[in-house]
Amino acid sequence: MTLKAILLFLFVAIIDFSHAQTDKTNTRPPFELKVFVTDSTVYDAQMKETQYVVHPGVLEIFPGDSILVEADVLKDSLVNLHVVTQTANPKKTLLITFNQTGSGNNRQMMLKIVNPFDRYLNYSANILPVQTKKWTSTSINPVYPHIVSYELWHYAIAAILLHDFYLKQ
């Protein structure tokens, strides 16, 4: 084997390894999904390994998730969404958190999004309420530039799909 062939092999192996590491960041390990429906009723499910980015531009978020999502801007759209473990590019990294807050009969679901961009962040969302177990669209307010946004629901939600991210003046 020539030195050139060895170097090419090592280069391809390093690139392949780095892509494998990136793909693993998108993988959510198995977990227990537990959401209080009422004070005495709990929705409980053992979840298998899943992906955060389930389709290009579509994030699936479960209660308890807190993720950093890096995105590129193409015209006004956010593209190449991918989950990262650290904020290497703060000007293009969203922080998204979804959890259940409160206690007793005062529980609510809260989605928090930190917008790092200089423009309003708009997106669409579909929720999976525990009671109906049917995906439904929900209204979302735009996130102001460099601000934290909170969305609240006063009923149990098993998951949220976030999609169609775009920026607006």
Q: Explain this structure to me?
A:
- With 169 residues, the chain is mainly beta.
- It has one domain (3-168).
- Helices cover 14% and strands 51% of the residues.
- It has one helix and 14 strands; from the N terminus they run αββββββββββββββ.
- It has one helix at 3-25; strands spanning 27-28, 31-36, 42-47, 50-51, 53-55, 58-61, 66-74, 77-84, 93-101, 108-114, 120-129, 136-138, 148-153, 157-168.
- The strands form four sheets. Strands 5-6-14-11-12 form a five-stranded antiparallel β-sheet, with no helix packed on it. A five-stranded antiparallel β-sheet has the order 8-7-9-10-13, with no helix packed on it.
- A hairpin with a 6-residue loop joins strand 11 (120-129) and strand 12.
